[in-house]
TrEMBL record:
Isomerase listed as a keyword: yes
Keywords, comma-separated and alphabetical: Isomerase
Name of the featured protein: Methylmalonyl-CoA mutase
EC numbers on record: 5.4.99.2
PANTHER family on file: METHYLMALONYL-COA MUTASE, LARGE SUBUNIT, METHYLMALONYL-COA MUTASE, MITOCHONDRIAL-RELATED
Methylmalonyl-CoA mutase alpha/beta chain catalytic domain ranges (all copies): 148-428
Xref: InterPro entries: Cbl-dep_enz_cat, MeMalonylCoA_mutase_a/b_cat
GO-annotated molecular function: cobalamin binding; methylmalonyl-CoA mutase activity
Organism: Rhabdobacter roseus
Keyword Metal-binding: no
Pfam families: MM_CoA_mutase (PF01642)
Length: 465
């Protein structure tokens, strides 16, 4: 028998604890303490070892990363080749381990690649290129002119997400993704297909929907790639997830852990061995909860989101500068964003532990609750013919719209967004220029289905009486 730490105190059962809580609540229902995370998943205030489904919890742990640490991967937006090169080099000199280069609609020509990447070796520094101005296969051709042997990083090609948000066609880009994947098959650390949750997260999806629809998006890519002749093992390992991390600290930790667990189910459906399948998760702090009324609050909010990301086991982390809502970030805000990751790693020692959430009865149970609810919704999407058909039927849009309305109601009824609906800046000059988020259909043609809007919660709250 293990010796108890405090032998003078008798053990308390959960039933007796609940009874004491009901007494202390003085008429308020015990159910009010439960947390609803979406998809019918509701959680108790705490759990005990007896309540944890230990065999399944072991399966979740087995799907997590076995190595500690993550890449500090700041976001850099392309302007000009010399200026962008300076930003990239400065980031690497001041703590970045990898880079995410947003090219926008710019097409990197052969003459621009050497100038933009001057003094940066793609064989050493992982860089993710995000672009809508050049096809993935063409970008690979340009990049391999300068690093012909081995590349690290990848291309954030997510054509179906662009289709769902902007109505743009996806067929040509998706075919090019397969070509790029085949061309770089010998480069194990270069990934050419992004599976982004931002398109669902920023439209207001709850965590269960975000998980389910992101998995459906991944499955749509895997099906298309394998049908085009890409081997299943190559496809599974060379796409990567880019996940928005919100402000619900514990839920976001569980969301990332559940993602790895569920993606393993999908790789097994392709009859692939677990030991050969690698899930790469890039996490970025959310834009949905950012504020323009008091941007410094975004730094605090992003720190909590970043902690969720690293405790949840991300492979790479991008923290948005606090003033990104106002336009181009400053050098000061960009450095603070990089330093959030550095402090968590070097001073918080979170970079020295693999799966720090393992063993927590609450987090293990929350992970399983999210996974079960998300898997049920994912199967519903698959039964409707997959993500594309479900989207064309407005099934996904209707689900997210309902979740968005529930989120709005929660904030109207007292949930707090600091600096927006509570603790606002009242001193003169204490607010900043408002930049409303876009909820417009950016497609020029009339589509038979709705597009997902890019929302910011602050825009809704500031329009309320």
């Amino acid at each position: 028998m293990p010796q108890r730490l405090f032998p003078d105190f008798s053990a308390m059962t959960k039933e007796s604890w609940q009874q004491q809580v009901r007494t202390d609540l003085k008429g308020t229902s015990y159910e009010s303490l439960q947390q609803v995370v979406g998809g019918g998943a509701a959680l108790e205030p705490y759990y005990t070892a007896a309540e944890l489904d230990e065999p399944r919890a072991r399966e979740v742990r087995a799907a997590q990363r076995s190595q500690p640490g993550w890449l500090n991967q700041p976001l850099v937006r392309f302007t000009t080749s010399p200026d962008t090169n300076w930003q990239l080099l400065e980031a690497l000199d001041r703590g970045a381990d990898a880079l995410w280069l947003d090219l926008g609609t710019t097409s990197l020509l052969a003459t621009e690649v050497p100038k933009t990447l001057h003094k940066i070796r793609l064989t050493d520094v992982p860089i993710i290129f995000e672009t809508s101005g050049i096809l993935p296969a063409d970008l690979v051709t340009e990049l391999t002119r300068n690093a012909p042997y081995y590349l690290k990083g990848g291309i954030a090609a997510d054509p179906l997400a662009q289709w769902m948000q902007r109505g743009t066609s996806y067929e040509l880009c998706l075919a090019s993704v397969g070509e790029a994947m085949t061309a770089t098959k010998a480069m194990r650390e270069f990934r050419t297909c992004a599976v982004g949750s931002q398109v669902f997260h920023n439209a207001g999806a709850d965590p269960v929907q975000e998980l389910a629809f992101t998995l459906a998006l991944a499955t749509a890519y895997l099906d298309a790639l394998t049908e085009a002749g890409v081997p299943p093992l190559l496809a599974v390992n060379r796409l990567f997830f880019s996940i928005s991390v919100g402000t619900s600290y514990l839920t976001e930790i569980a969301k990332l852990r559940a993602l790895r667990y569920l993606y393993r189910r999908i790789s097994r459906a392709y009859q692939l061995p677990d030991a050969l399948c690698r899930t790469h998760v890039h996490a970025r702090t959310s834009t949905l909860y950012e504020t323009t009324s008091l941007p410094p609050n975004n730094l605090l909010r992003a720190t909590s989101e970043a902690m969720s990301a690293v405790v949840g086991g991300c492979d790479a982390l991008s923290v948005r500068p606090f003033d990104s809502t106002l336009g181009e970030p400053t050098a000061f805000s960009s450095r603070l964003a990089r330093n959030v990751s550095l402090v968590l790693k070097e001073e918080g020692y979170l970079g020295f532990v693999a799966d720090p959430a393992a063993g927590s009865y609450y987090l293990e149970t929350l992970t399983l609750q999210l996974a079960d609810a998300a898997w049920a919704l994912f199967l519903d999407v698959e039964e409707r013919g997959g993500l594309i058909k479900a989207f064309e039927q407005n099934f996904i849009q209707d689900k997210i719209q309902k979740a968005w309305e529930e989120k709005q109601a929660a904030y109207a009824q007292g949930r707090v967004l600091v600096g927006v609906n509570k603790y606002q800046a009242e001193e003169p000059g204490g607010t900043y220029q408002q930049v409303p988020s876009s909820e417009k259909n950016t497609s020029s043609e009339v589509l038979p289905f709705d597009l997902l809007p890019d929302r910011r919660l602050e825009t809704y709250l500031l329009n309320q009486d």
